[in-house]
Amino acid sequence: MADIDVKIAQWKLVEVGRVVLIRSGPYTGKLAAIVEIVDHRRVLVDGPSTEEKKIVPRHVLPLSHATLTHFVIPKLPRAAGTGPVKKLWEKNEIDGKWAQSGFAQKTERAERRKNLTDFERFKVLRLRKQARYEVQKAHAKLRAAAPKA
């Protein structure tokens, strides 16, 4: 018999302590933690972020308005108040981990591109043209140096 290495699937489960990204509503783009599961479509969330503008008050959120992240606050008790949630949020450095994630960086990059002025867009165009020219020049040099068959 062959040795088989069985791994558990990396599912993102709806569970108490799971960090979610809110996709719609007044708190769009902010993070919150699931504190309690109301039913199969709604959860109670609380987002005690360390940054003032990213705080999400405790409220019921439909799961259709949330995206589950890979981050989980371990050992978060069910229906925990804002105080314990905030302590565990800071202890697990959720804001820092989120800022390092690829999804957050991609979103931030898109937001920055969206807010460029006309002149800044022109500068980006010129820089991309310069980079493309340098790549083409290096590629031509490699082709010229390659032996002809």
What does this protein look like?
The chain has 149 residues and is α+β, with helices and mostly antiparallel strands. It has two domains: 18-103, SH3 type barrels (Roll), CATH 2.30.30.30; 116-145. It is 39% helix and 21% strand. A five-stranded antiparallel beta sheet has the order 4-3-2-1-5. The longest helix is centred in the last third of the chain and has 28 residues, at 118-145. The chain is extended, with a radius of gyration of 23 Å. The termini are far apart. The model has no long low-confidence stretch (mean pLDDT 91).
Report the β-strand fraction as a percent range.
15-25%
Biggest sheet architecture = 5 strands, antiparallel
- Specify the CATH class of the largest domain: Mainly Beta
Report the structural category. alpha+beta
Question: Care to count the β-strands?
Answer: 5
Shape estimate: extended
Helix count, DSSP H or I runs of 4 or more residues: 4
- Portion in helices: 25-40%
Could you spell the SSE succession in H and E letters? EEEEEHHHH
Q: Tell me the span between the first and last alpha carbons.
A: 49 Å
* Average pLDDT taken over every residue: 91
- Number of self-contained structural domains: 2
Oligomeric state of shown chains: single chain
What is the fold named in CATH at topology level of the largest domain? SH3 type barrels
Low-confidence stretches: none
- Spatial ordering of strands, largest sheet: 4-3-2-1-5
GO molecular function: RNA binding; structural constituent of ribosome
Domain KOW: 13-40
Pfam families: KOW, Ribosomal_L14e
GO biological process, one term: translation
